[in-house]
Automatic annotation (TrEMBL):
Organism phylogeny: Bacteria, Bacillati, Actinomycetota, Actinomycetes, Streptosporangiales
Domain 6-phosphogluconate dehydrogenase NADP-binding: 8-161
Provenance organism: Actinoallomurus acaciae
Designated name of the protein: NAD(P)-dependent oxidoreductase
Pfam families xrefs: NAD_binding_2, RedAm-like_C
Keywords, in A-Z order: Oxidoreductase
Enzyme Commission number, as recorded: 1.1.-.-
Enzyme class: oxidoreductase
Taxonomy, superkingdom: Bacteria
Family indicated by similarity: Belongs to the HIBADH-related family.
Annotated Gene3D superfamilies: N-(1-d-carboxylethyl)-l-norvaline Dehydrogenase, domain 2 (1.10.1040.10), NAD(P)-binding Rossmann-like Domain (3.40.50.720)
InterPro entries reported in the protein's UniProt record: 6PGD_dom2, 6PGDH_NADP-bd, HIBADH-related, HIBADH-related_NP60_sf, NAD(P)-bd_dom_sf, RedAm-like_C
Amino acid sequence: MSERVAPVSVIGLGPMGRAVAGAFLDAGHPTTVWNRTASRAEPLVAHGATAAATAADAVADGPLVVACLLDDDAVHAVLDPVPFGSEKTLVNLTSAAPEQARRRAAWARGRGIAYLDGAIMTPTPSIGRPSALVLYSGPEETYRAQGPALASLGGTATYLGEDPGRAAAFDVALLDIFWNSVGGLVHGLALARAEGISGGELAPYAESIFGLLPEMMTRFARQLDDGVHPGERSTIASASAGIEHIIATAETRGIDTGVLTASRSLIRRAEAAGHGADGLSRLASVLAEPAA
Ligand SMILES: NC(=O)c1ccc[n+]([C@@H]2O[C@H](COP(=O)([O-])OP(=O)(O)OC[C@H]3O[C@@H](n4cnc5c(N)ncnc54)[C@H](OP(=O)(O)O)[C@@H]3O)[C@@H](O)[C@H]2O)c1
């Protein structure tokens, strides 16, 4: 059997685990699946998968074991008791903190298991399709060996280096951007509604705000990397004044101001450190400085 269609075992059949198992099946891999709630395996079995009775049986079936569980605690609960035997590779697609990924890699190393950590950056419908993006880190040799099988997940597979925590580090940084953006989005919607503006009225204008962000991201990233934060477009001092009336309006309308006051306290810290004339990219370096 060629490596392209090597047997794969998928542990965890939530929405993403099902998409992952489905993509392996579609690509022709003999696929064994296991899930704590066994009934979730049924549609995949109808599609050609083999359901294992236990996680240990699933691990025994595949030289390549792919875990896609809720979190690192679930990986611990499911895989720690399982004897892996020899010649196994574990690709862990479960979202985790970088330190958890490093600990999981050390755990695998201690058991002679080849280990890659993966972070899936795109939603379930992308899996097996060109729009999928999955980041991997761990031993390059393991990535190269499993590359053909992992290509079944579609799209772009990106190898980020030997440090097993690096894929998770990209994941948390990118999700940090995502959740802070979601925080701003829902806060703006709530503030608009409190001022009698419907979501539908606000959305077209909000789209133009979001349209500014890709260029800002690239520019701020460059400025942070270069340690240069020019204030010719806008300054921290100006932001300090500008955020006040937004907080005041939210307070007047009884809307939680936690998201905004966190930004204000960062801006004030930057001003107190003498950075008022700098551009907003300076705030990223101030965040990493200990608060006075
Ligand atoms: N869904 C997405 O769009 C997406 C996108 C990117 C990354 N991810 C990542 O992919 C991973 C899986 O996500 P998901 O969407 O498939 O669903 P999920 O809700 O994050 O995970 C559900 C899976 O975890 C299992 N599980 C939870 N606790 C367990 C425990 N203590 N013991 C055994 N099994 C346990 C569930 O089993 P039961 O069925 O028995 O409850 C189910 O198989 C997560 O780390 C998630 O962050 C998901």
